[in-house]
Design brief:
3 domains; 5-stranded antiparallel sheet; mainly beta; Lipocalin; 6-stranded antiparallel sheet
Amino acid sequence: MKLCGYTIAGTLVTILVGAIANGCTSFATSNVQPSKSLNPPPTTTHQAQLPRTKNSVPKLNLQAGMPYQKAREQVLQQGWQPNLQGDAPNLQDTSVKELYDFGYTEVKDCSGTGVGACRFEFTNQAGELLWISATIADRSNTERVVWHWSIEKNINVHQQTSQSSRPEKPPFIGTRLFNFLGGSGTGQSIAIAPDGTTIVKLQGTFESSIQYHGKFSNPIILQDGSGLGLLFKDGKVYSLAANGQIAKGCKGDETVCESSLIANTSAPIKPGFYVLGGTDQGLEVKGEQYRYYDEAGNQEWRPISELNYIQENLIFDGQNYWCIPPRSEAGVCTENGWMPVK
């Protein structure tokens, strides 16, 4: 969305990057710190704006801003190998597909918003997992630069793979709102479909952005390459820092970054006829039910609770996005709404 030239968009990106750097999944302030209440495997995390510390791993000798290709060559020379286990690369993402075809088989996923970071993973014979987050900066997709990185020690990759592929029951089906900071323009939403497909969005003042789109897991690791996440426990959601610990400081010193999950009752799904665009398939919403239809006829009515409200005239059924299009305007339905085709 272009508002006031590029001023607002630039400001939003700047704020988002600042929030990522400070360890909160929303617009956290600089005093957000990880809590010591959890005990995950120790990690060593590096960020672009922080100097190297005594916790740095000298054998890597990585530097923020160095070309990813150079960093990759260095890592491979030191015995690390692309992590081909665990989560499969998200090849439906065009950036991931291009990087994978380029030979970067260690790529896992890329963020379509913010700084556009991609996550790359390596393992070594000691069972450690190294992930590197690299951004485009002013370069092409395959000419990325290192943003930050982390080593997770004593990771059993085979065990991690079996655990990551094990389905976990979502805490709810539908859409919930949450806000770690409690301010305007800092809220987030999570929509979970019956098949476990999950969308986490940052609801800004002027526009929203998708932070995660995939199957539900607990915790959820956001797809911006930062390693930040969301933990669901006892009906609440907690912000996780990059080291896996619950973040603090969202509402003041030593306060845990937590939020209630509020049902999104103020945004009912609008009745009408929704389409994919470019096909004869449609979805009709009427009252508290919906049904699919095509040239062969109508299917049976189903409960509207199976659908996820994304925004006005845009819903998600767990597989596809459906839109109520503007009158007489050819186009396709996308995760951001109706996109005209000229």
